[in-house]
Specification:
This protein has about 300 residues and is an all-beta fold. The chain is about 0% helix and about 45% strand. It has strands at about 15-20, 30, 50-60, 65-70, 70-75, 85-90, 100-105, 115-125, 130-135, 140-145, 155-160, 165, 175, 190-195, 205-215, 225, 230-235, 240-245, 250, 255, 260-265, 280-285, 290-300. A hairpin with a 6-residue loop joins strand 1 and strand 2.
Length: about 300
């Protein structure tokens, strides 16, 4: 950092830069005459990359030299890493995330410090130059790669980097993301039951209500819904067989039941298709006095 003008204490102010290779005795010195100068570059083509030097900076003006700063160690410019990370492993965490880990390169420190690692990830049907890139900092040797496609094959490779650039890439490893969970939530099957009178029309006035009995085909317990109308809508799960029967009830008691009507299971394939509503309908006749029209409607 430069010295403020009020502390320069005279004209002809400048800096003295002294430096030497770490571990040697003799100092090399140079003068920087500008009071506003904040850097000095020492050029030497034979200087090995990332060589440590001891440096101190002093001041002077027309009256003489001042004191030096404390000695600090700096390094000459480094080269990009020359070796690739080793032992690269990848595992799938979910449909959209994978974890990749690695070991540092062997014998790299003479060229420069590793500032971090760059992970490249690309899908099998993509070009490597379009890979997603994630950078870590410092000594971190694992990271998570997110926002991937489910049930897809990915390639991953790792390389070290520093201020000079990135080093060579490791061999690519493969990982397949997990299959995504079903994101499609299906609504229950809506079964519309319409009751038609098979006896003379006046008979309907004697009926108080119609108990509609339904049960899962593999269960013995029965659910009942009562209606005083000639239609009712039931919500039944997909992919299960259901049994429905209806019998009228009047002041004189229960009437004769209809025959048992089986509602076959409706495959979720309907719901996973175009996303639009689908429907199927059938008309079934009962044994005695009623007829049932069943319309199964499914929707996303």
């Amino acid at each position: 950092q430069t010295v403020p003008e009020e502390l320069q204490n005279g004209g002809g102010f400048g800096y003295v830069v002294a430096f030497r290779p770490l571990g040697t005795v003799s100092w090399m010195q140079t003068v920087v005459a500008s009071p506003d100068a904040a850097r000095y570059v020492f050029r030497n083509e034979s200087l090995p990359p990332f060589s440590p030097y001891e440096v101190k900076v002093g001041v002077y003006n027309n009256k003489g030299e001042g004191s030096f700063s404390p000695v600090t160690v700096v390094y000459s410019a480094e080269e990009e890493p020359t070796r690739a990370p080793t032992t690269v492993l990848a595992r799938s965490l979910s449909a959209s995330d994978v974890e990749v880990s690695w070991a540092p390169p062997w014998d790299n420190q003479h060229k420069g410090r590793i500032q971090g690692y760059e992970v490249r990830c690309w899908r099998h049907d993509e070009k490597e130059e379009n890979a997603k890139r994630i950078r870590t900092m410092g000594n971190q040797t694992s990271t998570r790669v997110s926002n991937l496609r489910g049930n897809a094959l990915y390639h991953l490779a790792v390389r070290a980097y520093n201020t000079a650039g990135t080093g060579p890439s490791s061999a690519a490893v493969n990982v397949t993301t997990k299959k995504p969970r079903e994101s499609c939530q299906t609504s229950p099957c809506q079964v519309f039951v319409q009751i038609f009178q098979a006896q003379p029309f006046y008979f309907i006035f004697f009926v108080r209500f119609f108990p509609v009995l339904y049960r899962w085909n593999r269960q013995s317990s029965t659910s009942v819904i009562e209606t005083n109308k000639t239609s009712v809508e039931l919500s039944l799960p997909f992919e299960e067989d259901y049994i429905i029967e209806i019998k009228p009830f009047s002041d004189g008691g229960d009437g004769s039941s209809s025959e048992q009507i089986r509602i076959p299971k409706i495959s979720n394939a309907y719901a996973r298709g175009s996303g639009s509503s689908t429907s199927s309908a059938c008309t079934l006749s009962a044994l005695s006095t009623i007829m049932i029209s069943l319309t199964a409607r499914s929707s996303l």
